[in-house]
């Protein structure tokens, strides 16, 4: 059971936390014709010289060389660890994204070195071992796997070094100078108290700007993304590759938001979505968005999906060579047997009659189950079983509810938690500004 849950949630979380591309900060595209930008760019410009649409795969950043091999290995690191299959066109776009990320990473390492910050081999080893653990491999197994997928141990170590160096630089130059006053904390607590009981949505977004003449092109691109998502591509990968919103740096994650914080079209979409559902393309001011509803809750209210369950899973695999007719017959017999179960004490007997396996899990939250099962399990009484679910490849299974510890909590966060959150937001904002300044002052030569 734990393995099933990890496949649906924890793997992507590990990728985002342990090997997220350091410092990949996106900027929303602005309309160059608006008077407020101060550039005074005329309509109908003619571009002279090099075609600006051409981007080369290697660069020299302040005398540090980024080679084509560096880019290729980082691309394979992303694709390999996420087990993604992409077209050549998508791979070319990913290469450009990766090149920009490596440039930022190089600038961060260089700035840390200027400030006499050095990351030791032991620290990088520790980070490498943590990534290996997140992917349920030993360090040696991870090294072998990286070689097999065309990546390398070196490129992952370089990424870890960049993340550690930037974090340490921020802790020295930014964090000590961030101040959050008591009045600010109390104001946040008051707003939370006033919002108690209102719906809150954990959303992820892909946003692409579009002028009227590009509307068809952008919506077609988003429809293609939907097909990729149905094929198993992670939403975070598509957001970090294609989105033009500032949240692309965190896989499109908007975190927990309330409806008034969203544009009207996204408010309506969020209200109509179920947890785990994707909606889009949705027309919004300036372009189109795609939304993924990760979770939903009520502010400061105990959520039934935080209840902890004791479950018994009964599962039946299909041997190789099983025909469709045989599979249907076995599934029907499985469904009849599991729906006849009256209490967890009967699971072992039913499993023996079906030649099925039983796995117990005594502490799993409802929200940790796949979205399709959450609503079903919420309505179960003790001793009841879910309808059978599964696939031809994974076999068929059912969950039997043996116990439930109802959700508690829903109180206000502590003042310290609020203060820490506000401080983190301000550190992140300052970090984006620092990286912007580093990019502006850098000498980058594309080759």
From TrEMBL:
InterPro entries associated with the record: OMP_Chaperone_SurA, PPIase_dom_sf, PPIase_PpiC, SurA_N, Trigger_fact/SurA_dom_sf
GO terms of molecular function: peptidyl-prolyl cis-trans isomerase activity
Tree of life domain: Bacteria
Signal peptide: 1-26
PpiC domain: residues covered: 198-295
PROSITE patterns per UniProt: PPIC_PPIASE_2 (PS50198)
The entry's keywords: Chaperone, Isomerase, Periplasm, Rotamase, Signal
Name the record gives this protein: Parvulin-like PPIase
């Amino acid at each position: 059971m734990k393995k099933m849950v990890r496949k649906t949630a924890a793997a992507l979380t590990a990728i985002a936390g342990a090997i997220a591309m350091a410092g990949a900060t996106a900027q929303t595209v602005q309309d160059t014709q608006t008077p407020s930008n101060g550039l005074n760019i005329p309509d109908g410009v003619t571009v002279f010289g090099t075609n600006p649409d051409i981007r080369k795969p290697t660069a020299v950043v302040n005398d540090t060389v980024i080679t084509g091999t560096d880019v290729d290995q980082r691309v394979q690191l992303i694709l390999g660890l996420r087990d993604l299959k992409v077209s050549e066109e998508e791979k070319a776009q990913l290469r450009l994204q990766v090149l920009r990320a490596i440039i930022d990473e190089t600038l961060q390492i260089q700035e840390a070195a200027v400030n006499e910050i050095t990351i030791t081999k032991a620290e990088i080893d520790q980070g490498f071992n943590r990534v290996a653990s997140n992917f349920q491999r030993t360090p040696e197994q991870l090294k072998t796997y990286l070689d097999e997928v065309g990546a390398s141990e070196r490129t992952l170590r370089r990424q870890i070094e960049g993340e550690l160096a930037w974090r340490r630089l921020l802790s020295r130059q930014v964090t000590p100078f961030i101040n959050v006053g008591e009045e600010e904390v109390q104001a946040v607590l008051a707003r939370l108290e006033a919002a108690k009981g209102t719906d809150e949505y954990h959303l992820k977004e892909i946003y692409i700007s579009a002028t009227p003449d590009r509307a068809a092109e952008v919506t077609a691109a988003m429809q293609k993304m939907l097909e990729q998502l149905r094929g198993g591509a992670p939403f975070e990968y598509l957001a970090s590759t294609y989105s033009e919103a500032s949240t692309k740096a965190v896989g499109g994650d908007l975190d927990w938001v309330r409806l008034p914080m969203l544009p009207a079209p996204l408010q309506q979409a969020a209200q109509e979505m179920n947890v785990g559902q994707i909606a889009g393309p949705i027309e919004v001011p300036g372009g189109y968005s795609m939304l993924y509803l990760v979770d939903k809750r009520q502010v400061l209210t105990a959520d039934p999906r935080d209840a902890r369950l004791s479950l018994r899973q009964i599962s039946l695999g299909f041997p190789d060579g099983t025909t469709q007719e045989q599979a249907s017959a076995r599934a029907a017999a499985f469904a009849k047997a599991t729906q006849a179960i009256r209490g967890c004490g009967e699971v072992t007997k039913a499993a023996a009659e079906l030649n099925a396996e039983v796995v117990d899990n005594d502490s799993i939250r409802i929200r940790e189950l796949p979205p399709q099962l959450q609503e079903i399990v919420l309505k179960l009484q003790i001793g009841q079983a879910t309808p059978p679910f599964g696939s031809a490849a994974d076999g068929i299974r059912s969950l039997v509810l043996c116990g439930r510890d109802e959700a508690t909590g829903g109180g206000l966060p502590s003042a310290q938690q609020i203060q820490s959150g506000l401080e983190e937001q301000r550190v992140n904002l300052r970090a984006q500004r620092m990286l912007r300044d580093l990019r502006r002052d850098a000498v980058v030569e594309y080759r």
